[in-house]
Amino acid sequence: MPTECLFRDDSYLKDCEARVVALTEQGGIVLDRTVFYANSGGQPGDTGAFILDDGTRFVIADAIYTDKFKTEIAHVPSIGAPALKVGDAVRATIDWDKRYGRMKIHTALHLLSVVLPYPITGASVGDADGRADFDIPEAGLDKNEIATKLAEMIATDAAVSSRWISDAELEANPGLIKSMSVRPPMGTGQVRLIEISNLDLQPCGGTHVRKIGEIGGVTVTGIEKKGKQNRRVRIALA
User: Fold this and answer.
1) What percent of the chain has pLDDT over 90?
2) Choices 3.30.70.1400, 2.40.30.130, 1.25.40.20, 2.60.120.10: CATH for 4-94
3) pLDDT grade for 187, boundaries at 50, 70 and 90
4) Which of the residues 3, 80, 98, 216 has the least number of beta carbons within 10 Å of its own beta carbon?
């Protein structure tokens, strides 16, 4: 059953009321709706807790998609969590500080892809740092120059918004896809675009800040050669 992914419309929601609609063979808990981002596209799944009607609270250690179209999310409880059944009511709450850091880093990586307009071969989003791998034929990248360009963009405090387009519209505009390693999920009929006003537009299912000024300072902590034409650029929140 498709999960209503509340984080796609509002990344700032910290909790929600929900009901259990399924239990997976691996012990995952599927809700009718959730604020938990599921592991995808280089961004880890959210951690947090479920709170039951009687006040019982237990840790959720991860959130994962159960299907290739990324429509259903299973919440992975910690060892020793109470057994739930279909129909149980829960309040799902995420570890907000961790999520907000990832929102900043993920948005900053979008900006990094503007500074370095090359195909992306991999990416990883952390709580306070992240990296992107680029297919770059020539070396000579300068950390300070990249950091300066990032700072200039962040200073504009441009708005970040999302909208949906059809699979057919994306197929007609393949240049929107920057990643060579992670393709946007297609097959459900629509694809989510993230737009940073006047700076960037690309398909993405991740969580982002509303305005890029929220990112604050960003440092470029390293540039590594990962292959003949592959450079890994690491960034961190200042």
Assistant:
1) 82
2) 2.40.30.130
3) low
4) 80
The domain defined by 98-237 folds into Threonyl-tRNA Synthetase; Chain A, domain 2 (3.30.980)
**How far, rounded to the nearest angstrom, does the alpha carbon of residue 234 sit from its chain's CA centroid?**
17
Question: What secondary structure does DSSP assign to 69-133, as a single string?
Answer: TS--EEEEEPTTPPP--TT-EEEEEE-HHHHHHHHHHHHHHHHHHHHS-S-EEEEEE-SSEEEEE
Domains 4-94 and 98-237 share a fold: no
Q: Where are the beta strands (DSSP E) in the chain?
A: 4-5, 15-23, 29-31, 33-34, 48-52, 57-65, 73-77, 89-94, 120-125, 129-135, 160-166, 190-196, 200-203, 218-227, 230-237
143-154 and 96-115 helices cross at what angle (nearest 10)?
A: 110
DSSP state of 197: T
CA angle 227, 229, 234 (to 5 degrees): 70
Please give the pLDDT value at position 106.
Answer: 98
Specify the pairing of strand 160-166 against strand 190-196: antiparallel
Residues β-bridged to residue 94: 48
Tokens of 85: 């059944």
What Å distances lie between residue 42 and 38, 92, 150, CA to CA?
11, 23, 20
| 5: β partners | 34
Q: For residue 45, what are its two tokens?
A: 């799944």
